[in-house]
């Protein structure tokens, strides 16, 4: 059996992040989803609010949203056929489609919440994606973005003897200040995960924005 590299997961193995025998791996990736759900739950959205997960993968975040807030309307989009198929199986109540994130087929000001977690580091034209996420978000709506700390991930791969050192499909590296400027919306919160340490010592940054 091929070794599963928990510091780099190709599309067909993404489920292994949440079912890993490594407790730390399960904690890191599950906590990220839990923190997103926790933040959105505190927003006291109206019944039937529309929530979009852009780059939804196999639907894990949508599933957790629905477990906590079953009365909302859920949407997911992803570019990977396999991810969309698995999402249909995991979250049949959601409207999940294969779609490019830089050309979302939704009206302006359509969603109450848009999430995009651990996605933008994979996308060359990430600014086009940010523009689309903002376009489909309602005024006063919430946009939640997470991105990894590439320096710490690279250092972790070095310590564990992984090659190549850079995660192969990560084409961008972000820091929170840069991401805040690129998004350009009101910053509601920043959480550095998993332990709330400064970003330089954290694996992931969660940023929550509000559209005016």
Automatic annotation (TrEMBL):
CDD domains: AdoMet_MTases. The keyword DNA-binding does not apply. Residues 52-145 form the Methyltransferase type domain. InterPro entries: Methyltransf_11, SAM-dependent_MTases_sf. GO terms for molecular function: S-adenosylmethionine-dependent methyltransferase activity. The keyword Transferase applies. GO terms for biological process: methylation. Keywords: Methyltransferase, Transferase. Pfam families: Methyltransf_11. This is Class I SAM-dependent methyltransferase. It comes from Candidatus Iainarchaeum sp.
